Amino acid sequence: MSTMEPSHTHSPHIAVIPSAGMGHLTPFLRLASLLLSRNCSVTLLTAKSTVSNAESRHISFFLATHPRVKHLEFDLIPPLQSSNSSAQDPFSIQYNAISRSAHLLHPLLSSSSPPLSAIFSDLLVAKTVACISADLLIPYYLVITSSARFLSFMLYLPAFVSNPDKFSSNAVEVEIPGSSPLPISSIPLPFLNPNHLLAETILANLGVVPEAKGIMVNTFDWFEAETIAALNNGIVLSNLPSVLPIGPLQAYEFDKDQSQCLPWLDDQPEKSVVYVSFGSRTAMSNDQIRELGYGLDKSGCRFLWVVKTSKVDKEEKESLEELLGESFLERIKNRGMVVKEWVNQDKILAHPAIGGFISHCGWNSVTEAAERGIPILAWPLHGDQGVNAELLQKAGLGIWEKTWGMGNERLVKQEKIGKKIVELMDDAELRSRASKVGREARKATELGGSSDKAIMGIIENLT
Predict the structure, then answer these.
(1) N or C: which end of the chain has fewer CB within 10 A?
(2) CA angle, residues 242, 243, 244, in degrees to nearest 5
(3) Superkingdom, according to UniProt (predicted)?
């Protein structure tokens, strides 16, 4: 037996270590819930302080509804003082702080009872977890919270950084072995600057990826077949462990949902409502929010719109009346609902009244829409969202108007927005293609499906 194989034969005990932000936390909590349903024991390790209220609230919800989960917290080393402009992003600071504090996990993991069978960790803590894993003689698996396509890009990042002539904002595209070229415009700006805190953190953790027992990705084989094959056939990098698509990871039940959205949706006709949300950490300018509101109004469609004005939810201050005006809210009240609160997005997308989704294309949002077969109007704003938008369009899940740019690059006017919304909601062929994506996504997670087999294979290896 390999020294990296646990010797016990009872159900596996798995430590789950996410990074910062809802984009990373949500899939880890869903994975933990899935492991529990397969008779594993789970210990969740999180940093003592979170950037957003949403993170602390979700951890509390999760623990209340999953009493079998053991929860351990670790302190964070204070953030590095930096004059770098990236220090303005609280999430990049938190990623880096968690990465630098990960050595504090050693005593928590070594004293686990029963002994651990494996560690499932975020890429952003991989370097330290690999050392702990080797010291404790237990395997570790990486969990990638983005697409396989974006994983390929990250794995190839050291090669890009070493060739700055070809990897800069002046280039048109970059080549990744085994897949189509990636437009520079879709690459997150922090990655084009190797001194950016986020790029530094990822580059520091990439070296230990080959030491992982496997790489789990929240995607499914049908959705990214070409990229997954390239990763597993050694075309992207020759020394990678198996890349295992285990998604779309299913949402777990909350103990309560007090939002007024679901009762409102109950009163709307089937597939008549466009759902609008730009995620947990994406803020549009006030001017763009108003143009989007007028565009929704002009489209004549029913809509449910979650408004967000700041990157960190603790800093949300403006009321809807201040932002959009009382006359707008009065005018749309019979066919639109606008909220400025956390909503249970998975339940909303599962509602029969939803016919389309205007999304920033955060990966959790893409996989949730894929599972439900809901067509997306892609409006990527930052991070991996441009890569995700390209992916979903290629798979037939939605449409992407590239001329709108990324982030607050340019102000998109209400007329253009209104026309695209009508196209999203009225295109029968698009709806049919999106339904096919939904069928394939659900097939992957059913008993015996490709994603189900992947996760069961991992558990059996640890038993």
Answers:
(1) N
(2) 110
(3) Eukaryota
How many Å apart are CA 59 and CA 28, to the nearest integer?
Answer: 11
Active site residue 10: no
Model pLDDT, residue 126: 92
- The answer to whether the Cα torsion of 227, 230, 234, 235 is positive or negative is negative
CB-based contacts of 372, cutoff 8 Å, min separation 6? 349, 350, 354, 438
- With tokens 């049919």, the residue in question is 432
Question: Please, are residues 370 and 349 in contact by the beta-carbon 8 Å criterion?
Answer: no
Average pLDDT of the residues of the chain? 89
Q: Looking at residue 258, what is its pLDDT?
A: 61
- Can you read off the two tokens belonging to residue 172? 């048109």
Determine whether 165 is an active site residue. no
Which of the residues 58, 89, 122, 351 is marked catalytic?
122
Q: How far apart are CA 351 and CA 346, in angstroms?
A: 9
Look at strands 336-339 and 398-400 and give their pairing.
unpaired
Of 24, 196, 360, 382, catalytic:
24
Sites in the chain below the pLDDT cut of 70: 1-9, 79-88, 254-258, 280-282, 309-317
What angle is formed at CA 184 by the lines to CA 180 and CA 185, rounded to 5 degrees? Answer: 115
3-state DSSP call for residue 64? helix
Cα gap 201→444, rounded to integer Å: 32
The order of strands in the sheet holding 376-378 is 336-339, 302-306, 273-277, 354-359, 376-378, 398-400
What is residue 7's predicted lDDT score, i.e. its pLDDT?
42
Residues 232, 227: Cα–Cα separation, whole Å: 9
Q: What is the biggest distance separating any 2 CA atoms in the chain, rounded to whole angstroms?
A: 71
Contact (Cβ atoms closer than 8 angstroms) between residue 281 and residue 26: no
